[in-house]
Amino acid sequence: MVKEKIILGENCSFSADCQETGLNNNVIVCGGSGSGKTMSISEPRLLETKTSSLIVTVTKRRIVTKYIPLFKKRGYQILDLNFAKPAASTCSFDPLKYVGSYSDITFLARSVVKADPQKENTNADPYWDEAAVSLLSAEIAYTLMTKEHASFADVLDLHDTLILKDTGNTVRTSLDMQFARVAAKDPTCFAASCWRSFKNLPVNTAGCVFGVLNTSIDTIFSPELRSMMRDKKTVDFEQLAEKKTVLFITTSAVNPSLHCFVNMFYAQAFKQLFEYAENCPEGTLPVPVHVLCDDFATGGRVLDFAEYISIFREKGISVTLLLQSESQLEGMYGSENATTIINNCDSYIYLGGMDLKTAQNISLRLNAPLDEVLHMPIGQEVVFRRGQRPIVTKRYDIRKDKLYQKLTKEYHKEHTAKERQGRTPKSINSS
Predict the structure, then answer these.
(1) Cβ distance 182 to 191 under 8 Å?
(2) Mean pLDDT value across residues 405-415
(3) Residues with Cβ within 8 Å of residue 263, at least 6 apart in sequence
(4) CATH class of the domain whose range is 23-81+244-261+286-297+305-327+336-390
(5) In terms of C-beta distances under 8 Å and separation of at least 24 residues, what long-range contacts does 167-175 make, across chains too?
(6) Which of 350, 386, 394 is nearest to 368 (CA)?
(7) Domain locations in the chain?
(8) How many Å apart are CA 351 and CA 10, to the nearest integer?
(9) Is 9 helix (H, G, I), strand (E, B) or coil?
(10) Rounded to an integer, what distance in angstroms lies between the CA atom of residue 350 and that of residue 86?
């Protein structure tokens, strides 16, 4: 029987069978920029994935190109979701596909409104966001009621037509007639109720709520992403839970707005996988799903993540979270939620860095002087596993792995061939 293992460092590998280890497979990797998180942790995980499904966030397309042939040989379904270049995607992410109840509508609306990282841990009154959630919920519900085979792009198109009219003390809009027709059929329906909540606001307040929602939508949804939602087949999360599948998600290191959309994706993915597991006979996914999150805390907050991670193991879900520092995680999720996330990862790898707070925490966990942690040699790491003493070791050198060497050689060969094909020979007659 093929078994997976988790490589965390030099001479430091563990079984991925939770029944065997008694631990969850959640891993936190903390290291400054350039500390080797990708080559020492992420890529070894790719090499060792043979039976479970995988969701991988990358900013480097070379990883996708290099590893697709490997997973094809292993009998995996390959999904390539390219947020950086949506037209190049083989699939799409349409959040509207996963809406099946009123609570799903609210969850989706809140995911959109809360996706902007600038809103996290501010002193802003939550009233404005919640009012914006109600307005977007009305638009989502209306779209689902009035349009067959609707996509979230249709919701955005509807929102684009919303104009607030300057009429004194009463909120009047360009969509009043559409919602009036819905309310006439069923005054108690969800769309009509949410719309009334917006319409009953003072005029100035309604204008501010409208502005809040506009900001969230403009931050997240580019024209390219809208086209992707219309034109490509949507990712089916049940597919990952039923048949071994690898889903590559490409984002951009230089376009922070994409992080918002990625985190919306993760919020939906975790929710859908959890609910699917709940409905399975054993209460767990038939095929375990591991999620490899690069730069986890650089984008927006994944909605309800701190709550979900505490029950991942029993559902057959696990995550590897790549961070630059604990301070980064705390800044995004708040102190309490950051602690919850860390405490629910039975493996923690520290690769060094300049963040003082992280070094202080490592010093306490390791029972070592702070200056030793701060001045830890390049290439060294500390591995913490629940129930075991810390292991001070070296980073795993994937370059010595024979399979990695083979994949790299094949990748460079193919890359070189494509470069040659792309060159245009000079004309003999050119000056």
Answers:
(1) yes
(2) 91
(3) 115, 299, 300, 301, 302, 303
(4) alpha beta
(5) 167/203, 168/203, 169/203, 170/203, 171/198, 171/199, 171/200, 171/201, 171/203, 171/206, 173/199
(6) 350
(7) 23-81+244-261+286-297+305-327+336-390, 97-225
(8) 13
(9) strand
(10) 34
Rounded Cα distance, 205 and 35, in Å: 48
Instruction: Kindly report the pTM of this predicted structure.
Output: 0.87
132 near 216, Cβ under 8 Å? yes
Distance CA 126, CA 229 (A): 30
Res 206 pLDDT > 70: yes
Q: What is the residue type of 179?
A: F
pLDDT at 222: 86
Q: DSSP assignment, residue 392? A: E
Question: What tokens does 130 get?
Answer: 């919640």
Helix, strand, coil percent values for the chain (each to nearest 5): 50, 15, 35
Beta bridge mates, 164: 173
Sheet holding 77-82, edge to edge: 77-82, 245-250, 53-58, 289-293, 317-323, 27-30, 347-350, 380-385, 391-394
**Would you mind telling me the total number of residues written for the chain in this entry?**
431
Compute φ and ψ for 33, nearest 5 degrees: -60, 130
The letter for the amino acid at 107 is: F
> What pLDDT does 119 receive?
56
Q: What is the tens place of the pLDDT at every residue in 93-127?
A: 998 988 989 999 999 999 888 876 555 545 556 78
Radius of gyration of the chain from its Cα atoms, rounded to whole angstroms: 24
Three-class SS state of 404: helix
CB–CB of 232/91 below 8 Å?
A: yes
Q: What is the pLDDT of residues 3-31, one digit of tens each?
A: 899 999 999 999 999 999 999 999 999 99
φ/ψ (deg, to 5) at 144: -65, -30
Quick check: 228 and 267 in contact, CB under 8 A?
Answer: no
The encoded tokens of residue 121 equal 């841990």
On whether the CB atoms of residues 60 and 353 are closer than 8 A, the answer is no
Question: What is the β-pairing status of strands 5-9 and 27-30?
Answer: unpaired
What average pLDDT does this structure show over 178-185?
A: 94
pLDDT of 427 over the 70 cut: no
